[in-house]
Design goal:
There is one protein chain. The protein is of the alpha+beta class. 41% of the residues lie in helices and 21% in strands. A six-stranded mixed β-sheet has the order 14-18-19-17-16-15. The protein has a five-stranded mixed β-sheet with strand order 6-8-9-11-10. A four-stranded antiparallel β-sheet has the order 2-3-1-4. Strand 8 and strand 9 form a beta hairpin. Helix 2 packs antiparallel against helix 3. The protein is flat, with a radius of gyration of 33 Å. About 11% of the residues have low confidence.
Amino acid sequence: MKIDMEVFRRTFFEESFEGLEVMESSLLEMEAGSTDRDAIDDIFRAAHSIKGGSGTFGFALVAEFTHLLETLLDEMRDGTRDASQPLIDTLLKSVDCLRDLLRCEMDGREIDPTAYNEIEADLRRHLEGSDESTAAPKPSASSPAPACDSAPEEGAEAAWNVSFTPDSEIFGTGNEPIRILRELASLGRLEVIPILDGLPSLEAIDPEECYLRWEMVLHTKESESAIRQVFEWVEEHCDLVVKSAQSESTEAPAAAENAASASAVGSEVQRGQAATGGTTGKHSAEGRSAKKSGSRKPSASEAGSIRVGIEKIDTLVNMVGELVITQAMLGALGKKYEGEGSTALRDGLAQLERNTLDLQDSVMRIRMLPIGFAFSRLPRIVHDLNTSLGKKAELKITGEGTELDKTVLEKIGDPLVHLVRNAIDHGIEAPDVRRAAGKDESGSIHLTAYHKGGNIYIEIKDDGAGIDPEALLAKAREKGLVDENEALSRERIFDLIFNPGFSTAKEVSAVSGRGVGMDVVRRNIKSLGGQIEVSSELGVGSTFSIRLPLTMAILDGQLVRVGDHIYIIPLVSIVETLQIKTESVNSIAGRAELYNLRNEYLSIIRLHRILDVEPDGDALGGGLLVVVEGDGQRVGLFIDDLLGQQQVVIKSLEANFRKIPGVSGA
């Protein structure tokens, strides 16, 4: 049977990048001098997994670099090295370096050795003790050993008896026992005896099953926990016994006929002492026969989720979209049908509608992901900007479990990065300036996400200097964006920052100041069908509020009729609907029509003229006006009738027919 290694390769890269996210977030939460064992264990496990997989796929440079990183982390786990700030910074750089190395391997690109060599040198300097002032004192040889390890003295070589009995289905989990033995051999001098009593006849051998078990003697200076860690990944797939040879007889349970095999396997293990993938924890020997009698209980992670390619989900979403369209067509036809069986037909169509909506809702939930994925890289950006700008800013995140569509999630990441960078660069003041203003020298940026009215709202709020509306207006007039005598509301003034090339920064920095970015932020948010608004108070801080649809695949729409044609207006764009009062209509030089709505004048757009259709009537009095909002402005759409609301799937007219001004899709 031919195995498609590319599938395993893709899974390795996916899991490795997830592991790097875990490493980065744990390091960012770690404080100098921290002894948070759980956080260090999380970082170590992620690095260990990457090292093991890299060795399996032959990514030697990645495996070598991660082994160096793992050695440093192991000292932190043992309590022989504290987490100093220089060390944390170096580890963060190592995460970046690993990410670049993995991307090069994934894309088949040449690796640039410059950055790699620099970070590797930093890691070696830490290992050689250049930050010994921050390291915890190593336990002396006279100190008692931990209860869990029975090694006699630290630094002294000891012999350990290791019995390793893998499950017969271990190959199906992606683990290879010979690689585990090679890593065990890297800890010292290993004597290996394979036990062949479970080996069937040649005709009965299944190449996908493991029939061997191993009895070993390891001479090493390492502790019992270090030995058990080699078997970390196969915790659920083996019986493992590790005992000190000093506390029991070391008589080898080998039969004479196994001696030649033992010698051959032992030589192979000794030749493979390069550090490769290993695997998680302890197992007491419970007997192989008990495991064979029934299937292994799947772990929570195995039973709780599966990996599915996004293209399969997209295909499923498209198919459900077509089903929604077909159901809507049948529903419309069913309402017109009269005759025998019409009642039963309508009941069946009503049931079809309910089932279609339930299916649609279930499929859409598959695409929904926590917005925390988009938030995950922001703490690192805040950390780096604090260092480069000499500021102190703390990022507080709430609502990271709020879910939205994967497509929206992927596109909102860059706007969020830019807004957080701006909040630190333009908003949060330098520590001495904040102290002089009576503020805490450490500023705060609060990132919040929540659902409201079928939309998701994201707020980026800082307690910095705020935005000066007078300075904004003066800059806009200087650039010719606003006439000298034109009066603007406070909201319209803040809206000026989204103009291309507009910036109030006094000097250009590596972070901002060129006026490039905020216009892109608005354009990206608009492309998602969303809106962004700004509010600010000088000396108190600023808030950027983003409103987004939960999904772009299916739209909640309001059906309106103009003449014999039915159009759909997105519900998210509708502010209100009203019946036109003649006395509230005003004309400007006979060219434009305005409607006075609570002292706000709205332009009236007659849809029948724009769309070139015959309306029921041309008189505004008594007609219907739909007030819609976009780009911070409101207008009124004159229509003939207001119909029901409906969820619709929008197809691109430009891709399937041709571009029609004013119509986004069909």
